[in-house]
Each structure stands twice: as C-alpha cells, then as structure tokens.
Amino acid sequence: MKIKQISVFLENKRGRLYEALKALAEQEINIRALSIADTSEFGILRMIVTDPEKAKEILEKNEFTVKLTNVIAMAVKDKPGGLAEALKHLYDSNINIEYIYAFVEKSGQKAVVVLRTENLDKTISILQEKGVTLLSWDDVLAL
Amino acid sequence: MMWNKEVECMAEEQLRALQLERLKQTVKRAYEKVPYYRKKFDEVGLKPEDIKTLDDIKNIPFTSKADLREVYPFGMFAASLSEIVEIHMSSGTTGKPVVAGYTRNDIEVWAEVMARCLTMAGATKEDIVQNCYGYGLFTGGFGVHYGAQKIGAMVVPASAGNTRRQIEIMRDFGSTILTCTPSYALYMAEVAQEMGVEPKTLKLKAGCFGAEMWTEQMRKEIEKRFNINALNIYGLTEIIGPGVAHECIEKKGLHVFEDHFYVEIIDPDTGDNLPDGKRGELVLTTLTREGMPMLRFRTRDITSIIREKCACGRTFAKIERIRGRTDDMIKVRGVMIFPYQIERAILEVQGIEPHYQIVVTRPQHLDEIEVMVEMSKETFSDEVKHIENLRKKLEKRIEETIGIRVKVTLVEPKSLPRSEGKAKRVVDKRTLID
C-alpha cells in the first residue's frame, strides 16, 4: 500500500520551481498531488506523479537533487472531522507524522491524504485494522 | 622510485657544501648582473664575499612580490635577453604580473626537478602522463611537460578545460598519471560519472596535484574516487614553477629539492628565522637559476620544515602541505581565517561534496561569514528537520574550527562555480571604507 513520492530539493532562487515543473511538463509527466515544505533557505517539493522513476530521471538530468520516498495515500470522507478521525488512530498508537498533505478527488466525494510517518508498515496495519481506506498505486493513477 | 638517487640521497654534509658553493655563485651573479640586488645589498652594506656560511643568508634582504612588480618586466633578469629562451608569467590578479625568464640551463634544471617529482608519483617511461595544467604563460603546463619528457613518458598535453574530452582521452588512451589542480580532479570525477565513466575503472595510478591549497580529506576523496595515489606538488612562478617540492609515496610532507632551492621559514611579522618544525612563512632562494636568481623570496605560503629522516631514503628536507597564505587569509572580526580550515570542517561532517564557497559581507558594522555548501544526493532527505540538522551540524563544526559563528546555506548541487584552475573559495563583498 506504499506509494512512491518524488521529493526535490529547491534552493530559494527565482525560477527553480518553474524549471522543475517545466521539465516534467515537457516529458508529459502529470502531477497528481503536490506540496512544498519551505523554510527561508530552501524548499522541498513533494509530488505524486504518474511515472515517478521517469520523473526522477528527468529532474536529475536537469541537475536537481531528487529522492523517491515511500508514503501512504488514504481516502477520507470529505466532511468535517474526516481527517481527524483517521489521525486519531495514529495518535492513539503513538505514531508521529513526518508530513502530510491532501487533495480532493475529482468527484469531490473523498479527500485523498498523503502522509509519511516514522513507521510506515505499522501505520498501514493500524489504519487497515481500523477500516481506513488506503489507496493502491493503481487507485492513485486512476484518480 | 627515484629519478636521481645519487643526488636525492646525498649525505647531509655534502649537500650543505654544495648549497654553500651554489649560494655564493648565485649571490655573486645577482649582485653583478641585477641592479635591484646590488642596490639592496649596498643599502645594508653587504658584499657577495660576506656570504661565508649558509647561515650568512640571513643577512640578505628579502625579495617580495611587490619588488618584482616594480621591475616589471625584465628587471630581475641576470642573463641577457638573448640567453633567455622562455618566459612565463604569474596571473597578475592582484596587481602587475611577475615575469620569469629562463635560460636554456634553467629549463634543464626545471625538467630535472619535475622528472624527480613525477618519478616520486611512480611515473616511468612506460607511463602516459595526462597533463591538465594550463599550457601558456602559466608555469604549470610546461613544467610538467618538460619533466615527463625527460623521463621519457608519453605526455598528453591536454591543458585545462574541455572536461568531457579530458575524460574521453583518459579512457581511450589509458592515461596512467594525472596532473592538475586538486579541485579540477574532483570536478573531473563528477563529470566522468555523469558521462557514465566510473573514474575507478580508468587506468590512472597516481596524480600530482597542486597550484592551490587542499586538505588531507580532499586527498582521500580524490584517492577514493579514482583509486589512485594523490600526491602534493609545490612550486611558484617566481622560483621556477612547479617542481620546487614534491611528496614522496610516504605522504608525510613534500621534499624540497635542496640542491636547487634553499628553504627557510620566517615569522611573517618580524622576519626572524623560525626553527624547524615551527610554522611560518616559507622563504626560498634559488641556488642554480641563471635567468632570474631569487634571493630570499617571501612566498607568503605558510608551512613548516620537517627535517626528520624520511622512510623513502631521500635526504632532502620536507615541508608540510601549505597551510594557508599570509595574504589571502580572511580577516574577520580581527580573527585570521584560512579557507582550508572551513574546508576541513565541512569535510568532517560526512557525506557532503567538497564544493563550497565562503562569502564575507559586512551588512552593518560586523563582518558576517556565509558558507555556501552544495547539497549532495547522498545527504538529501525530504524531511526539513534532517536538512536543518545537517545545516546546524555544519555551522557548529565550522564554529568549533575557526571560533566564529557562520551561517551555512545549503545550495543545489553544481550551483557553485567550478573552476578549471584554482578554485575561488572566498568572495569578499566587504567594502572596507570605515
């Protein structure tokens, strides 16, 4: 149930984000979800894309520092408390979240939440046990 | 391996006698043929015949780079222009350049000392020397070239630049000895990898690296990447070019070719001679140079003399690797800082490519140092806290080393300027009009 996320180191310099995205666009890589963690010094661009391996190759060719990381994508109800409910299970099990970002699927029925925790395997088993819907790679591509 | 065992292992007493005899000749020649020296000698009331022992060298006034600039272009020549067969020149980045003239015999001496250097690195006539020091007015290219030819090795006069082609040549020709600046060697390793050529698979066995300051950690990095012996070479335009001193395979300092160069260490502030083992400014005197004899030239390079017996069998004294410059150090808030100190600190924090730049600014009244360090593929984590930790670790280690707080900025790989010659490590943006 692990999903490949691509992360890119971005210096806080004009045009770097654009250059990264342009490189992907030119090679027809579609971005499903995106988030940027930024500090005053640098940013980390995190993306779920249609072809992570190829995206990595393209970005590296363009001299970006890139890493593929495993994350989890879960579907939560798009209503107040939907996400909180899912996170409560992790809280109860003492699992720390490293980072999290969300997007809403096209039909608007569900929100998709991407998260990375300190222990992915444990997170997966807890969420599955509690009946939270985890998306497979195919599910993500079909969104 | 030794090129000239008889000389390189000469008994101490015999060596000193040879040095004295040659010093007397050099002083006489300088006094008689160079008005600049005659004037300097006369000012202090010194006559060539006053030099009776090697110790008397202390009475000779120093020669500085500024002196050489004053007599630009040919004022230091002790041979007629018809006897000068080659000219080289320093870059002149800090003022008027210094011109060096060589007689036929000087070129022969240069080839001899360079042959000794390359032999220390293991070069024989069977070897292929890829010489990536610049050919032209800079002394590096031709110095290595003459030495390699004297040995009978095959020289590839690649000069600096066109890095991808350098790698192709290295791969296709099977070059075995590499000569260039250490930062260029590391850059070449990077480019090779980009081209899909694993540097370790090249036939290189050793390299003579110099013309800029570098650290032991950088040596290890070069040795690891290319799987070679990386040895230190030292020289300067004013004295002869590369070939004043070179490291033997023991890697515990650079043997000075004392039959051609007399070495002293002085306190840069007082000019007093310092004992062996003590760090100070290197002062060199040429003992055989005809075209441009140099008497007590202040190199501005900081090192110390090692006079212990070397396991390699050579009797020549050694100098430790150059520790800094008395003039390109950065003085920040009154503290003297040498780029190599910062470099060492960065390299100690594991996993970071040795590419960095030091930027000194004075935003208000206080000097600030920013050290830009390139992020490496190995250390990149997609978690902010990990990157922040790395940054803090670097800041802490640098502060521990130089005693001043610095700001470390992690930048993208390959965003810092690469050089094919001397790496520009310091950018001083202070406008010092107080």
UniProtKB/TrEMBL annotation, chain A:
<dbReference type="InterPro" id="IPR045865">
    <property type="entry name" value="ACT-like_dom_sf"/>
</dbReference>
<dbReference type="InterPro" id="IPR002912">
    <property type="entry name" value="ACT_dom"/>
</dbReference>
<protein>
    <submittedName>
        <fullName>ACT domain-containing protein</fullName>
    </submittedName>
</protein>
<dbReference type="InterPro" id="IPR045739">
    <property type="entry name" value="ACT_dom_pair"/>
</dbReference>
<feature type="domain" description="ACT">
    <location>
        <begin position="5"/>
        <end position="76"/>
    </location>
</feature>
<dbReference type="Pfam" id="PF19571">
    <property type="entry name" value="ACT_8"/>
</dbReference>
Automatic annotation (TrEMBL), chain B:
<comment type="similarity">
    <text>Belongs to the phenylacetyl-CoA ligase family.</text>
</comment>
<feature type="domain" description="AMP-dependent synthetase/ligase">
    <location>
        <begin position="80"/>
        <end position="284"/>
    </location>
</feature>
<dbReference type="InterPro" id="IPR045851">
    <property type="entry name" value="AMP-bd_C_sf"/>
</dbReference>
<dbReference type="InterPro" id="IPR011880">
    <property type="entry name" value="PA_CoA_ligase"/>
</dbReference>
<comment type="subunit">
    <text>Monomer.</text>
</comment>
<dbReference type="InterPro" id="IPR051414">
    <property type="entry name" value="Adenylate-forming_Reductase"/>
</dbReference>
<keyword id="KW-0436">Ligase</keyword>
<dbReference type="GO" id="GO:0000166">
    <property type="term" value="F:nucleotide binding"/>
</dbReference>
<dbReference type="InterPro" id="IPR042099">
    <property type="entry name" value="ANL_N_sf"/>
</dbReference>
<dbReference type="InterPro" id="IPR028154">
    <property type="entry name" value="AMP-dep_Lig_C"/>
</dbReference>
<dbReference type="Pfam" id="PF14535">
    <property type="entry name" value="AMP-binding_C_2"/>
</dbReference>
<comment type="function">
    <text>Catalyzes the activation of phenylacetic acid (PA) to phenylacetyl-CoA (PA-CoA).</text>
</comment>
<comment type="pathway">
    <text>Aromatic compound metabolism; phenylacetate degradation.</text>
</comment>
<keyword id="KW-0547">Nucleotide-binding</keyword>
<dbReference type="GO" id="GO:0010124">
    <property type="term" value="P:phenylacetate catabolic process"/>
</dbReference>
<dbReference type="InterPro" id="IPR000873">
    <property type="entry name" value="AMP-dep_synth/lig_dom"/>
</dbReference>
<feature type="domain" description="AMP-dependent ligase C-terminal">
    <location>
        <begin position="334"/>
        <end position="430"/>
    </location>
</feature>
<dbReference type="GO" id="GO:0047475">
    <property type="term" value="F:phenylacetate-CoA ligase activity"/>
</dbReference>
<protein>
    <recommendedName>
        <fullName>Phenylacetate-coenzyme A ligase</fullName>
        <ecNumber>6.2.1.30</ecNumber>
    </recommendedName>
</protein>
<dbReference type="Pfam" id="PF00501">
    <property type="entry name" value="AMP-binding"/>
</dbReference>
